[in-house]
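Researcher: Quick test of sequence recovery. Tokens follow.
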């Protein structure tokens, strides 16, 4: 319930969202009632956010959207409703420009579904998610670490975290997303590597040397020029 809204307060304390992830032209998939655009003033590097929902076309395939179209793609609590979550990830990543970020939140299966399937809290849910398990109680469990592999060599995981700070583990079973504090979520941020970086097998700093003045400013040490 209002998962983007709840995530915003936390994200304001995590500088990468304002300076790296929510930058440029974005796409917000399946968020009519809780759009990211309502918080654009809090992330001033956002230039615009296009909302994509059912009336725009299938949110799994994003038919009609060209490859490499957006600087970031944001999807909150929608992956679990897709017929094929791996296919959805492929297409959400497809429309992302090199250097851009895919930001996806999904319900954590233990905190949200709490050991029951089909879902007791949302009958539209088709899948459950965990960061990684060798065994799950859920017959439709998806390991996000494994899921990201379908994105290929361009996928660069920048963030993968269980959002459990507001979750009450001692309470009886109920949908804690109905409270104003519990996210019950996993947050995944994947950067799309540019082609040159993909070929090189990773991000490499440019060649060059640092002057003694540069080293002094960066480290406080007085040394000869730092050679690479």
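Model:
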């Amino acid at each position: 319930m209002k998962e983007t809204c709840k995530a915003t307060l936390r994200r304001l304390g995590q500088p990468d969202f304002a300076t790296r992830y929510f930058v440029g032209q974005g796409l917000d998939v399946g968020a009519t009632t809780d759009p990211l655009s309502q918080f654009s003033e809090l992330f001033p590097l956002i230039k615009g956010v296009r909302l994509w929902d059912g009336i725009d076309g299938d949110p799994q395939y994003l038919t009609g959207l060209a490859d490499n179209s957006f600087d970031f793609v944001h999807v909150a609590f929608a992956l679990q409703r897709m017929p094929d979550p791996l296919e959805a990830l492929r297409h959400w990543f497809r429309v992302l420009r090199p250097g851009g970020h895919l930001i996806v939140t999904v319900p954590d299966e233990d905190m949200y579904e709490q050991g029951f399937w089909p879902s007791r809290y949302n009958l539209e849910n088709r899948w459950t998610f965990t960061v990684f398990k060798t065994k799950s109680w859920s017959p439709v469990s998806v390991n996000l670490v494994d899921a990201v592999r379908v994105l290929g060599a361009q996928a660069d995981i920048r963030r993968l975290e269980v959002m459990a700070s507001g979750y009450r583990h001692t309470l009886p079973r109920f949908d804690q997303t109905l409270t104003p504090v519990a996210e019950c979520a996993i947050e995944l941020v994947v950067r799309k590597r540019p082609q040159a970086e993909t070929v090189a097998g990773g991000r490499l700093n440019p060649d060059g040397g640092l002057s003694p003045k540069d080293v002094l400013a960066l480290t406080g040490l007085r040394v000869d020029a730092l050679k690479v």
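The mean pLDDT is 94.
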